[in-house]
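User: Hi! Is it possible to get a structure for several chains at once, not just one? Here's what I have:
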Amino acid sequence: MKTSLAMSLFLVGFSAFAVMNLTACTRSADKGKASEVGGEGKGVATKPGAGIKIGLVLDKGGRDDKSFNTAAFRGATKAAQELGIELKEVESPDDAAFEPALRTFAEREYPLVFAIGFAQIDAVKKVAPQFPKTHFAIVDGIVDMPNVKSLMFAEHEGSYLVGYLAGLMTKSNKVGFIGGMDIALIRRFQTGYEAGVKAANSKAEAIINYVGVNSSAWANPSRGKELALAQYGRGVDVIFHAAGASGIGLFDAAAEKKAFAIGCDSNQNGIKPGRVATSMLKRVDTAVFEAIKMQIEGKFQGGVQYFGLKDKGIDYAIDDNNAKLIEPYKAKLEEVREKIIKGDIKVPDYYEMNKK
Amino acid sequence: MIWDMVGDILMSALRLSVPILFAAFGGLLSERSGIANIALEANLLFSAFVGAAVTALTGDVWVGAFAGIAASVVVGFLFGSVCIWGRGDQIVIGTAFNLLAFGLIPVFTKALFNVTGSTPALSTEQTFHQPLVFFALAIMVMFSLEILFRFTRHGLRVTAAGENPAALLTQGVNHNLVRLRAVTEGAVLTGLGGVYLSLCQGSGYIREMSAGRGFIALAALIFGGWRPLPTFAACFFFAIADAIQMQLQGQKIAEVTVPNQFIQILPYVATLFVLIFYATRMRAPAAINRDF
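Assistant: Yes, the chains can be modeled jointly so their relative placement is included. Here is the combined structure:
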């Protein structure tokens, strides 16, 4: 009896805490931005998006996962700087926080609210019908409603390309893949990657690992590192990750073992310069920026928008950190890219494979 | 081939066990004195964060490590004080401390580095690279704790404070001070685990990077019957189950690739089985979560 009372008190307290946290977040953001706009003076008025409020609900990896969420935030920040929109972002401590966060934005009459990540599909499905005048945009998930735009990426195409690179680079004929959770989205990375590896080097074998079974799998770098060390120990010399912040452990392992890693979503080449062969770029930033632009221009429409190699929504990163490393393979990679765009190479798509 | 794999699994288990070991020993000291400590997660997070943040700011990993342990001590001291003199339910207070860690650390990172929840990545010179030294230290801690509880006055007083604080009081010893000292000493150990997470196993602090290790440590400590040696064994058991899981993922067993999901549940299944067989032998300190 005593414990159940304590438990319910705890639950009530916790939910109160979560809600307070959320509102406090948006409030303080309100103030901060308000003073900023005031400080900048009238110069902002010329920007097309001045005064338009955009809400951004990030996935659990948070604004600084240096990967997926960072990309989304970067796109929105760019819109704030170039188009003059008012950006407010919220990070969700857990799955239960998505829905109230989206609703809070909608209730405050934000014209466009972003839901970043597949985990928010259910929350968007619930909230979007209640606010038909509010526009929503979700990344990595399809929600079929007139006021929701679904931003989908051809992860398999980019994964194929970096898989091809791994296949060319490996000397041991063993390459690795580390996913966050074993879910359809990450399987899409994996199957594309495996196909790319095989195409480049038929003798090469890919070892596949997953970090965990719950959402902490995206923020557990020590496990990421341990898995990478295990793979390197088995003779693997290049590893690609799709594991959010857990992937940072991979770069530590690569530096320790003097082996190679391939980054994901954002450009991660600079995390351990010289050890990161390239990063598969998922231009969530471009997608977010473009959606905001459409909103400002009044062209925002519901429906699914696809991004792939063709429109550079999917790409791979070349910068000072890996230019030398990737030089011998660059011509070949460009050739493969062209073939995928033209349709000469059919990259297996896990989503399609699963429909049958 | 097979021996290579066994070696890899053992090394991996050593590295994985370190943070759980330190957290479990920290929790053990606290719980034996009668303070139920579910705030281990908070201790781990604060020490991991402060360790990484101070290292990033000063550039010296040793300064960072000591700052991280000091942070854990402060958290432990506060937790102990609130439990003892606030007289609330220790589970509720522990939960509050965990929530505080989840919420407060992003505020600090925002103020210090203008990012929410992580510290800048540290270079290879700014981290430790000797997980085995940490593991050896954990073994030494285990023996020290055995000696402490068996042969020293302080150890006996800690046990008495956890079992029968009234008896301790009749001896003229303030059980509250004994408890506070035990919790704070435990925090030093847990702090070592946190520092290991961000400065040896990782290179910088990532949001909520303890990923439930505080609770795994708590389970290991209960499973070890609140005694140092069995707790050590329990931690190592968890670590080895995890290491095997990691090595087996994607490995072909007799030409068949076992689905990852099956491999990934191994540690949990193993834990369940062991708990079923050993559950009856566990006995918590009698005065845990109680004054008298």
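The domain at 155-282+322-355 of chain A is CATH 3.40.50.2300 (Rossmann fold). Chain A touches chain B through 41 residues (CB under 8 Å).

User: Great, thank you!
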